[in-house]
Design brief:
mainly alpha
C-alpha cells in the first residue's frame, strides 16, 4: 500500500492547532467526567485532524492531550 505524506501550509496548521487548543480547553472546562461521552462527535473530528497534523509533522496541543486522556479514562 502506498503511503502518502501530508503537507499542510504552516498558517493553516497554526490555525487548526489554535482551534484544537481552544476546543479542548472549552471541553475540559465545561464537561464533567461523566458528561464527556456527550462530546464524542467532537473527539472523533479532533482525532481526525490531529492524525493529519501528526502525519504532516505537527504535534497536538497540550490541552488536547489532556482532554483526550480524561475522555479515554472515563468513556472507554
Amino acid at each position: 500500500m502506498l503511503q502518502m505524506s501530508v503537507f499542510i501550509q504552516p498558517e493553516v496548521a497554526e490555525a487548526i492547532l489554535a482551534v484544537l487548543d481552544e476546543l479542548s480547553s472549552e471541553i475540559d472546562l465545561y464537561y464533567q467526567d461523566e458528561q464527556l461521552a456527550a462530546a464524542t462527535p467532537a473527539f472523533t473530528k479532533m482525532e481526525r485532524l490531529v492524525k493529519m497534523l501528526e502525519e504532516a509533522g505537527y504535534s497536538p496541543p497540550e490541552a488536547y492531550i489532556h482532554i483526550v486522556s480524561r475522555y479515554k479514562k472515563f468513556v472507554n
